[in-house]
Every structure is written in C-alpha cells, then in structure tokens.
Amino acid sequence: MERREDSIFPIEEALEMILIFDHEGKISYVNAAARQKLGYERDLCGRHISDVFPGSFRAVKDGFETECPVGSKLQNLVAYRRNLTCFPVEARLIQTDDDSGMYICMANDILEKEFLNREIERIKQEAGQAMKVKSEFVANVTHELRTPVNGVLGNVRELLGRKTDEETEKSLRLVERCCDDMNKIINNILDFSKLEAGKFTLEPRRFHFRNMLDYVKANHINKMTEKGLGFFMTVSPQIPEYVIGDELRIVQILNNLLSNAQKFTSWGKITLEAVRTAQVNDRMELFFIVSDTGIGIDKGDRDKLFQSFSQVDASISRKYGGTGLGLNICKQLVELMGGRIEVESEKNKGSTFSFSIWVGTCEGEEAVLQRPDDVKGAPVVMAAMSPPMEENGEDPENIRTYGTPENREQLKKNLSKLILSVEMENWEKAEMFMETVRQLTEEAPREVKRAALRLKMAIQKENYEKVTAEFEELNNFLQSEGDVLHDL
Asked: What is the pLDDT of residue 52?
C-alpha cells in the first residue's frame, strides 16, 4: 500500500478527486481533493466504492456491479460525503492495463456549475418574460395612443374642410402636422418593439418596382423643391418591372433615408440610384444608393448612426427632431431582407447611404425595362429637378465658406425665400430657410452671426414686426460685408 501511494504521489495535489479501487470495489487510495470533498481523513481507504457512489455501484459477493461504462467518457454521478449528504460530479472510470485489475475514478465537483447553470437559465427566463411584457406593453401603449391621435386628426381635417378664418386654419394646420408627426413616432416605436422581440415578419408580394419608386418620389419631391434642392432618381434597366418583396418595408427604408437627406441638406442635391448587382436562380440582389450634399458626419460618429435611440450629438434632435430609431429600424429591416447597410460621409461634405436587399424575380419577367425613350444599356433617369451643382460651377465647400460668390448667391436666394415665407405667414417654411441661412453664416463675423440668431428667435416667436426689423439689420450687415443683397 505504501509503495502504491509513493508511486502515484504526484496526483496527490490534483484538483480533481481521484479514487483507486480493486476488482472487489475496495478503495486503496484517495487524493487530498477527494478526502476534502468527501469529508474523510484517512479512513476512506479500505471502504467499498459503493459507500461513495451508492447510486452507481452496488456491493456483491464477487466485488461490485455498476452500469458506468469503463473508458474516458464523462458521466454524471452523485457522490456521498461521510455525513451522507451528496453533491453532483462529472466522472470517468478507467481500468489499468496491468494485471492488477485496478480501477481509477476521476471526478470533478459540479455543484457550483449546476447552480450557475440554473441561475443562467432562470435569468434567461426572467429576461424573456420581461422582454415579452415590455413588448406587449409597448404594443398596447402605441395602439392606445394611436386611437386618440387619429381621433384628433380626423376632427381637425373635418374642421379644415369647413370655412374658417385664417388664424383658425393656421392653428388647425399646426395640430394636423403634430398629429402626423406623432403617428410617425408611434409607428417607429411599434416597429422597433417588434424587431427587438423577434416578432417582425416580412410580407413579400409581387409589385411594380418603378411604380414603387414613383410613389417614393412623390412623397419627397415637394419638400425638396421648396428647399430649392435638386432631386435625381436613376434606375438601372437591368431591374425588371416586377419583383417579389415586401414593398411596404422597402418604401419605409427609402422614405427614412430620403427624409434624413432632405432634413440635413440645405442646398445642393439629393440622388437616389437603384441597380441590380447579382442574381442567384430566382433571387436577385438590388443595391440602393442615397446621396446628399448636407451637413455630413464625422468619421468617429458613424458607429452611432445605427444604434437605437442614438443621435450623432445631443443638438441634432433639438435642431432637426427625431427619435433616433429610424436608421436602427432600417438596419434591421435590411438585414431581414438578407442585405446590409453602409454609410460614407465627411463633415460638411455630404453623406452617402447604401444598402442591399434580396428580392424574388417573377417567372417570365423581362430583365430589361422596355420603354420607347430608353437608351439600350443606359440607366433610366426618373426625376431631375435641377442641374447638378457641379454643372452650375458651384462647389459645396465654397458655398459653406462665408464671403465666397457661391455663399453670397445662396444667402440671397434663401433670404429672399425666407422673407417671402414670412410675408405669407408660412412660419414653418421660414424656419426651414432660416436654418439654411444660419449654416451659411457659421463662418461669418460675430455681429453677423448674432444678427442671424436674433432673426431666428424672432421667426420662432412668429413676431412679424420683430422679424422684419431683424431682417433689415442682418441685410445691412451683409451689405456692409460685401454688398451681398444689393439687388434684393
């Protein structure tokens, strides 16, 4: 016995429990870990293996019986301590190769592991239940909110159909716009909660691709025209007339990207391009590119764009509005359609958002759009509101630099539109043009910037007398800076 303990002494300090027993089941050696875990001193040697594993080993006349396989396979057993309490272990049973007929049992205490696994499972269940409750709560709240908002909107539109005085109509229009904005926020929150809960499903159907783009164009062209922006939409002739996909969600993505482009662009142009980039059997990859000449994004801030409830900086939501959910929803929708969304941008030089999706092709559909005015192999230009800035000789960087001819020209145009909007009491448009004027005078001398700020505050208060006075003061500053508005 002493010789055996000396020969295997290196395993005495092993972290796992090690028990050696013979063909009769009599234990001849246990290491320190086994003695400590099982609560024995030295009196474990000489006991039967069934005293430690009564559920797995049975003492019989010839030795022992067990259903545990011999080999390196791990198995879950229950070990009993000296005080008859028990704990779970992972064990393997090995028989020696010599003629001694000895068995070695190596076991690890997995009590803590099982406890942690149960805790993890419990936390997962609680998190899942919390997510379910949150999703149901959000869905219920948004549905409940939609009812009174739509009730207010319906009554406002009914009142707008009647003859009202100018002041009342102005207030009703404001309420109508607020209700529309509220509905957009509700829809975003509802979509976000469904996506987060994994309950969002696409509804692919056959639809006319170019009619869908015409609808998107109609949603945005008026606002872009009001801001004096050029809008170009180009469609590759390799895209068939009909495709199979979730038209509603494709429109939602495009509307969001174009709304952002219009919101953050004060001059220049916005372009939308759609091309076919790949086809595998009856599936086709479509690639969309939305570019603008707006305020742009710093390289370090791009990662924030697609996070939920995130803005590039805190002032964005104050200046331009929004929940910070739109791009996150777009990202998740694009990924549901098997694609990805990317952004390239530079501060004050515009942004380009691109995304790909996979759609189905219709059997027998022509791959190339056939129209009388198409040039074979050339892209189809769906809309062009004004020539590109480059063709006009206007450089976006020069426009932003105060005092350049391009900057002066843009100031004249926007101030003319601003004062016209004020005269027509269209304060919403006046604020839009004022924001452009603010951007155009960011590099101006302090007195010009202060005059622009005072004009902006007067417009926000809708004070006609104050606006005209501040407009004249800003006009005088600009004229003294270079006779900017000499022909206004």
From this structure: 93
